[in-house]
């Protein structure tokens, strides 16, 4: 685990505190009982840029599923396709930390499958915030995919549904 990942997890744990709870445990309107959405599916729309000169870029569309293990921690599957210069499919298995309301931190090992070439190990690190609208969510996401030490920046918006 990298030093940056450890620091993110530490800050998130401190923000969570003894009374903090994940977004999925916030009370419904008119009901003092928490709403427990164990499942969340989302569609991601955004862009991806690789290399320091931004010469490789493309549109990114993804689908992810998360199962909430606890109020603080979720796990799931994410499949994302990047078009344009990148032409890749990324498949990762996110571990998601929910330190406060809709805030999320993601660490996701997996693989990148280029249109041409060999399958490579990928590690996605990211953050985002899900704004709730009843059972629906919408929010910004920022991710960095590390493949052979080369970063790909993926930025966009996710539209989700908790159930």
Instruction: Please tally the helical runs, counting DSSP H or I stretches of 4 or more residues.
Output: 1
Point out poorly predicted stretches.
Answer: 5-28
Distance between the termini: 32 Å
Spatial extent as radius of gyration: 16 Å
Structural class: mainly beta
Shape assignment: globular
What is the strand tally? 10
Count of domains: 1
Share in β-strands:
over 45%
Question: What proportion of the residues is helical, as a percent range?
Answer: under 10%
The largest sheet, given as strand count, sense and whether it forms a barrel, is: 10 strands, antiparallel
Top-tier CATH class? Mainly Beta
Mean of pLDDT: 84
Please identify, by name, the CATH architecture. Beta Barrel
CATH fold-level name = Porin
SSE topology string: HEEEEEEEEEE
Compact overview of the structure:
With 163 residues, this protein is mainly beta. Helices cover 9% and strands 59% of the residues.
Spell out the key features of this protein.
163 residues, mainly beta, Porin, ten-stranded antiparallel sheet, 10 strands, 59% strand
């Amino acid at each position: 685990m990298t030093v940056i990942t450890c620091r993110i997890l530490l800050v998130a744990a401190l923000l969570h505190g003894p009374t903090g709870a994940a977004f999925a445990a916030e009370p419904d309107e008119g009901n003092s009982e928490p709403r427990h959405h164990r499942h969340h599916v989302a569609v991601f729309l955004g862009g991806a840029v690789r290399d320091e000169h931004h010469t490789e870029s493309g549109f990114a569309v993804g689908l992810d599923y998360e199962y909430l293990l606890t109020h603080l921690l979720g796990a799931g599957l994410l499949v994302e396709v990047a078009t344009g210069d990148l032409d890749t499919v990324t498949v990762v298995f996110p571990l998601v930390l929910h330190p406060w309301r809709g805030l999320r931190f993601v660490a996701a090992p997996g693989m990148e499958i280029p249109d041409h070439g060999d399958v490579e190990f990928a590690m996605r690190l990211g953050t985002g915030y899900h704004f709730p609208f009843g059972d629906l969510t919408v929010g910004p996401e920022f991710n960095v995919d590390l493949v052979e030490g080369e970063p790909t920046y993926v930025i966009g918006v996710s539209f989700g549904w908790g159930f």
